[in-house]
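Below is how a single chain appears once it has passed through the pipeline. First comes the sequence as given, then the structure the pipeline wrote out for it. We keep one example in the README because the format questions we get most often are answered faster by looking than by reading.
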Amino acid sequence: MAAHTVTLVRHGQTASSARMAYSGRSDIPLTDVGREQALQAARRLAGSGVDAVVCSPLIRARDTAQAIADATGAPLTVDERLTEVDYGPFEGLDRAGARALLGAVFDAWRADPFGAPVPGMEPLAEALRRASDATADALAAHAHPALVGHQGILRIVLVALGQIAPGDYFATRLLEADPLAVDAPAIA
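Resulting structure:
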């Protein structure tokens, strides 16, 4: 398959992202700021050639994706595989709270995110499989899909696309509702 463009968009601000907490599977809505960020992202993508919008089922991603679909005229599809990583025991905590709860286990995960899973948390290697499949399917069906999701899962998409190494997972930051276009080769 020929190379395509895929645009990654992290959802707009939520109350949890504003305090830098792990939101994971919590279904948290956008704040007023987040809704405005989603509209700004949508305006940026209008006329960009996005031909499909594929998003996580969580409301913060769906609302961001809907704004993009409305602005681009592209169809919107919800894909469960783009749901955020399940952070298990530290869901809802910020980094300091997670460290206080899990200590060395959390520090080991931060040092080696794909090699030192936290008990009760979805291993990133498993999240990589589902993110790779979702991305491959979107790229097989569309010339320029926009994938709308979450910080964790979209970083994993970047790993799947070969844009970052697994060890760069935490060094990579995706800003809220800031579209990132990537020339994407076919992935398995």
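The domain at 4-87+122-184 is CATH 3.40.50.1240 (Rossmann fold).

See the next section for the split statistics.
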